[in-house]
C-alpha cells in the first residue's frame, strides 16, 4: 500500500449491492480457519432474502484487509433437504476469485444449507451450515 498520506484506499465491494434491489439482509456466517467455530472470523457468507421473488441471495467475502490476496473464494447453497449436488454455487471449478464469490440465488421453500471458503497464505478458511434461515 502506498505510504503517501493523501492516498485514499479504493472502496471495497460490499455484498448488498451484488444481490440487486429488493433483497434484505438476513444474516452472516463466519468463515474461519479450517471451518472451526472457535477460530476467529476471517470472512463471511452473507445471506439476503427477497420476499417478492421468494429467493435467497448469498455472497462470500474474505475480511477486507485480505481482499485481493486470497484465492479460491467460493460460495454454495441448497435446500437443506436436497442432495448436495442439487445446489447452486459460484467460485468452484476453474475459477479463482480473489475478492468475493457470488451472488448466487436460490429458491428454497424452507431452510437452506450453505457454505463458503477461501485460501489465504497456504491456509484454508471455510463455513458450513447444514440448516439455517428457516423463515
Description:
- This protein has 135 residues and is mainly beta.
- It has a single domain (21-132), classed as Immunoglobulin-like, CATH 2.60.40.
- Helix content is 4%, strand content 48%.
- It has one helix and eight strands; from the N terminus they run αββββββββ.
- It has an eight-stranded antiparallel sheet with strand order 5-4-7-8-1-2-3-6.
- β7 (112-120) and β8 form a beta hairpin.
- The radius of gyration is 15 Å and the shape is globular.
- The chain starts with 14 loop residues before the first helix and ends with a strand.
- Residues 6-15 have low confidence and may be disordered.
CATH architectural arrangement? Sandwich
Q: How many runs of DSSP E, i.e. beta strands?
A: 8
SS strand fraction: over 45%
Uncertain residue segments? 6-15
Helical fraction: under 10%
Q: What's the average pLDDT?
A: 86
Looking at the structure, what is the overall shape? globular
What is the first-to-last residue Cα distance?
A: 43 Å
Rg result: 15 Å
The CATH class, by name, is Mainly Beta
Number of domains: 1
Largest sheet: 8 strands, antiparallel
Question: In terms of structural class, how would the helical and strand content be classed?
Answer: mainly beta
Number of helices: 1
If strands are numbered along the chain, what order do they take across the biggest sheet? 5-4-7-8-1-2-3-6
If you consult CATH, what is the topology?
Immunoglobulin-like
List the secondary-structure elements in sequence, H or E.
HEEEEEEEE
